[in-house]
Design a protein that fits this description.
Layout (H helix, E strand, L loop, with lengths): L6 E3 L2 H14 L6 H8 L3 H13 L5 E4 L4 E4 L13 H15 L7 H12 L6 E3 L1 H4 L15 H12 L2 E7 L8 E13 L2 E8 L4 E6 L3 E10 L8 H4 L13 E7 L1 H8 L8 E4 L5 E7 L3 H9 L4 E5 L1 H19 L1
Antiparallel strand pairs: 1-4, 2-3, 5-6, 5-9, 6-7, 7-8, 10-12, 10-13, 11-12
Length: 330
Amino acid sequence: MPDPAPTRLTRPPYERMTYIHEQLQLDKLPNCSTLATHFEVSAKTIQRDIEFMRDRWALPIEYDEPRHGYYYAQPVENLPLVTMTEGELVALLVAQKAIEQYTGTPFEAPLTNAFAKLTSQLDGPVSVALGAARHVFSFKAAGPARADLELFRQLSQAVLETREIAFDYRGLADAKPARRRVQPWHLCCVDGQWYLIGHDLDRAAKRTFALPRIGAVEIARRTFPRPAGFSIREHLGGSFGIVAGTGDYRVRLRFDSWAAQLVRERFWHDTQEITERRDGSLELSLHLADLAEVERWALSWGQHVEVLAPKELRQRLATAARAVAEQYLG
């Protein structure tokens, strides 16, 4: 089946301007009233379109008072077009495809609308073969996080307005949710999962909360001063993922030749150092503040990785490996 015709990414005003341009070329003497009736918009909207065409595109549009209409004072063949580099066009296509991974989630509509608004700011049309792009670009997420748009809206409002919030939260080790009172500082997305970082008032400490475990949010009227010294980059600088930690660990992992190529292909941490070995294996060094996440990551590589340091991480993997073996071998 042939690809559908190229999709035209335009903003609605450009469609009106194209029609106005055609009417001017044909010397139809269009005016704000007739055009407003045709498009079912206000005369002021048409006036802004004409002013845009005249002032931004430098088109020779003038008004004929006796004949009550606009005309081109000089011949005009085509409307101005947007010039995009190949890289910019690819980026636009990738952005459009990235949105598709949220199809069927609460984020689909707002993301689609946001993308439309962004492309609507173009001064002219960009015709791209989005139908063909379907077969060129794609995204697939393993176990995408569950999204709650209303929850995200509430938390975003609280963060932006620096207002205290209360919510039910069930930690991984909790039997049931507990009420938490928090001063929300920051929302961040790590590996496709959204987290709220803030000050837990009852525990008098900085805490991180996974959004899927938050419920029954209440936004208080009470505000708080935004912490001047908080930096998300510094906060997560020693983490392998989202767990900030307070330790100081020099982690060394040796990957065999099979896994080495996979490790080389990705960037894992700001502190990473890779040492190549003659047999094709490699050693990955990391400076971390917590071991929980790197432990789970190392376990995912199975027999293809060996923990060289620290001793604590090596022991934790040995304990986990024995537990797994006992579970399957009895």
